[in-house]
TrEMBL record, chains A, B:
Protein task: Nucleotidase that shows phosphatase activity on nucleoside 5'-monophosphates.
GO cellular component: cytoplasm
Catalytic activity: a ribonucleoside 5'-phosphate + H2O = a ribonucleoside + phosphate
Entry similarity comment: Belongs to the SurE nucleotidase family.
Protein's organism: Flagellimonas aequoris
Protein name: 5'-nucleotidase SurE
Binding residues annotated for a divalent metal cation, in chain numbering: D11, D12, S42, N101
Keyword field: Cytoplasm, Hydrolase, Metal-binding, Nucleotide-binding
Cofactors (names): Mg(2+); a divalent metal cation
Amino acid sequence: MEKPLILVTNDDGITAPGLRALIRTMKEIGEVVVVAPDSPQSGMGHAITVDSTLFSKKVVVDHKEGAPSEYSCSGTPADCVKLALRVLLDRTPDICVSGINHGSNSSINVIYSGTMSAAIEAGIEGIPAIGFSLCDYSWNADFEPCLDAVKKIVSEALTNGMPKGTVLNVNIPKTEKLKGIKICRQARGNWKEEFDKRRSPSGKDYYWLTGEFELLDKGEDTDEWALAQGYISVVPTQFDLTAHHAIPLINNWNLNEH
Amino acid sequence: MEKPLILVTNDDGITAPGLRALIRTMKEIGEVVVVAPDSPQSGMGHAITVDSTLFSKKVVVDHKEGAPSEYSCSGTPADCVKLALRVLLDRTPDICVSGINHGSNSSINVIYSGTMSAAIEAGIEGIPAIGFSLCDYSWNADFEPCLDAVKKIVSEALTNGMPKGTVLNVNIPKTEKLKGIKICRQARGNWKEEFDKRRSPSGKDYYWLTGEFELLDKGEDTDEWALAQGYISVVPTQFDLTAHHAIPLINNWNLNEH
């Protein structure tokens, strides 16, 4: 039987240790092709490159543990997936995995996440897709403790298929002793930004974005709760953004009367 | 009574005719502050500027018809809203309106939309928010025919408030004879990309992203249907991306057994 074709991408760039760990793990269960940004793309959300050129080339990052086919791309994570599906791959991948991100994409962070935008882009094309993120921003983060679970989740996705219109947002707590895997909903939360205002040598005002995440949700069915308890959180995530429950409410507005 | 404070932004940049038309219209119902990108940010999705500086300055674009306070910002639409709320505004705006975009943000385009990312960013902060898009990509598009409806929708949002966790994605067909306003769901669809491959003078391969939108949904309750019939479509849009219906399905996967 043909091995499953696994498209691997990320948003931290093709040399990121989290991506390299994911490639090693995916090679154990399938044929791996990598198409990943040539530079970090964190916080890119679902950006795509319009009105600008996109460069891509075949590269070898790691002779020993890399994939047979790896391409770097000058674009965003969503661009990488589009280019992979339309140009670089010979056949449709059986699954697309993105990550392992250096840092959390739980709760509202899914909205800003380049990692998840790659998974969502594949999902829109009907391809099972999963974004993986480790809650450790360090470039030297230890990915080893989670690799068995990553492999298990991908294997189960290949076996079961994905519910229609759904991709998975998987977040992994920073711990050597993972308690297990919990299926969750996205916790409500937001960022309390602070802008660090400075002045350039030429006298222009500029800002650095900083801030703290504020959790607004104590539900024990949320990703944040699971992570705090030492569980891997899996949130089925959709790209139909319609707030269906709000349609009847807005139908009561006085929009068409004069 | 204090006039409502209206934050106006967009993704086409602070000089875009669609933004200028929105400013003129909003000045009829409230006090307007503009914080908008200093250059076009189309297709930026929900990108934010991390690990890079953000410049902002007070500007005057149009002495006669502009707003008393306008700021340009070097960042993305989501950055503009964050900077407005945390730094530039004296009080919380009563509503945030984004647009009017030069081009459609219906169906799956909501995912890639900088216009909508600004509205969603405000929505995350609990501020009523609406993204407006005209289905005409031309810089010289005629915004006049839709301005009464835009004003109506904003007025109704101010009167009724917004359902919790919801913002509005409003798309306007390119026609002088609008039939009315329909509350809709997001149509299923995707882009069939084609990459136009070229070679640079120095011998590097590069691509231009092109493609056609493919509608996969004929539902008469969708935004695409409403637009095709000449109606303005209003889709209540949420930022809880959890596919709640998929949670029990994925709970059946064999993830925690050994």
